[in-house]
């Protein structure tokens, strides 16, 4: 499936010369060695106004970035899982306020960390159960082991839960492990990035009676025609996969991460609803267009319009932003003026964050610096694909936002 420009940018309110600043700016990242390659797509009103690629998917072979290049999208899996869960919500299977222990009994009788060390943590009983909306908004108190900022994420690492997954544990077994660890905070009282969406994926499995792989294939990826999106890359498609890089600590140059990168080439024990998918620009473009069209694409409707609008409002208590409500730690977003909906960060006010963008925009990104956003007000979508860990190394997402919006003149 290709993803080429379909309309003159001037016909959909862009200044074409201004929009082409994206190309010249991001080419410098490749030319000076900070990125191996990238693919960027910008649409308006459902038409592709910019589709550009530069560099290689593998520096050692010189193989170029192409339309069918496979990218590890990591946390851009989360919106897909959130859509899957809300499809079940629309069918009446649960209320957002339901306790998840109704389906996942291991999450009953949780405890919350309050003080102490990794060797002697002190915990108290949770006074509020984890509810479905807590998973969708990352207000559950679950965290990530790789954040490396708190005693609780240290306990995750000690239990074997880290960036490289949970060893040989599958999704059900991983949920049992996470449920046995203390929460970082009382559910609903803070925002904290973690395995909430993985647990949400397990909820999808239990309610639907299917594995997450089966549900995605039959209910989301298949109907949308996302035929290149998968959980791992087999031998036949391995040459299409982009190599995973980190930034050299001294030079900043893109440096291969062979151990972490190799995980994409074998079937994982854990089908991670929070970080498991591998996709192409063309496939994820179809997902963003479904969102822009409020749940429907090419006659296939996954969600109702009211549901998509509801998901993409700020659901943090009191309308708080992440700057005031976050527990700190790792996040793939700026904090000021940013709320969080049911599976997406939401820009309530673009001014505090000091990045040119639109109010009402919703978005997320992945660990390897991939990103997307949907702006329903301007009828605009944008996607960035590259493979650099961590996503915070260069301000790629902020740069893309300012370059897209400065080109929008109508």
TrEMBL record:
- SUPFAM superfamilies given in the database record: beta-lactamase/transpeptidase-like
- The Beta-lactamase-related domain covers 23-404
- By its UniProt entry, which Gene3D superfamilies does this protein fall under? DD-peptidase/beta-lactamase superfamily (3.40.710.10)
Q: Which InterPro entries match?
A: Beta-lactam-related (IPR001466), Beta-lactam/transpept-like (IPR012338), Diverse_Enzym_Activities (IPR050789)
Tell me the GO molecular function terms.
hydrolase activity
What are the alphabetically sorted keywords of the record? Answer: Hydrolase
One family from Pfam that matches here is Beta-lactamase
The protein in question is named: Serine hydrolase
The protein's organism comes out as Virgisporangium ochraceum
Taxonomic lineage from the root: Bacteria, Bacillati, Actinomycetota, Actinomycetes, Micromonosporales
């Amino acid at each position: 499936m290709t993803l080429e420009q379909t309309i003159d940018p001037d016909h959909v309110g862009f200044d074409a010369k201004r929009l082409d600043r994206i190309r010249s700016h991001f080419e410098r990242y490749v030319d000076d060695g900070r990125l191996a390659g990238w693919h960027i797509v910008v649409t308006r009103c459902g038409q592709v106004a910019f589709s550009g690629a530069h560099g290689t998917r593998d520096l050692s072979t010189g193989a170029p970035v192409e339309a069918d290049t496979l990218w590890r999208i990591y946390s851009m899996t989360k919106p897909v899982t959130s859509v899957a869960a809300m499809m079940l919500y629309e069918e009446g299977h649960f209320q957002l306020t339901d306790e998840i222990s109704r389906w996942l009994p291991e999450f009953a009788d949780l405890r919350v960390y309050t003080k102490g060390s990794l060797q002697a943590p002190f915990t108290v009983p949770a006074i509020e159960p984890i509810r479905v909306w807590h998973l969708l908004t990352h207000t559950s108190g679950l965290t990530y082991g790789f954040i490396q900022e708190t005693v609780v994420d240290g306990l995750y690492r000690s239990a074997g839960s880290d960036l490289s997954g949970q060893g040989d544990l599958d999704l059900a077994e991983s949920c049992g492990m996470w449920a046995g660890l203390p929460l970082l905070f009382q559910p609903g009282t803070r925002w904290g990035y973690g395995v909430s969406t993985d647990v949400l994926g397990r909820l999808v499995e239990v309610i639907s009676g299917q594995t997450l792989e089966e549900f995605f294939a039959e209910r989301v990826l298949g109907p949308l025609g996302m035929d290149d999106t998968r959980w791992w890359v087999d031998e036949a498609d391995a040459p299409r996969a982009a190599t995973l890089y980190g930034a050299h600590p001294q030079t900043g140059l893109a440096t291969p991460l062979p151990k972490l990168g190799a995980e994409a080439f074998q079937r994982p024990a854990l089908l991670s609803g929070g970080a498991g998918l591998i996709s192409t620009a063309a496939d994820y473009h179809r997902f963003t267009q479904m969102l822009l069209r409020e749940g429907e694409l090419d006659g296939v409707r996954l969600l109702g319009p009211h549901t998509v609008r509801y998901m993409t409002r700020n659901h943090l208590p009191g309308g708080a932003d992440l700057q005031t409500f976050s527990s700190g730690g790792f996040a793939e977003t700026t904090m000021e003026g940013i709320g969080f909906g049911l599976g997406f960060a939401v820009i309530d006010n673009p001014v505090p964050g000091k990045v040119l963008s639109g109010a009402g925009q919703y978005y997320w990104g992945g660990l390897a610096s991939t990103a997307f956003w949907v702006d329903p007000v301007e009828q605009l979508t944008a996607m960035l694909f590259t493979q650099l860990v961590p996503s915070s190394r260069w301000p790629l997402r902020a740069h893309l936002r300012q370059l897209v919006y400065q080109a929008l003149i109508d």
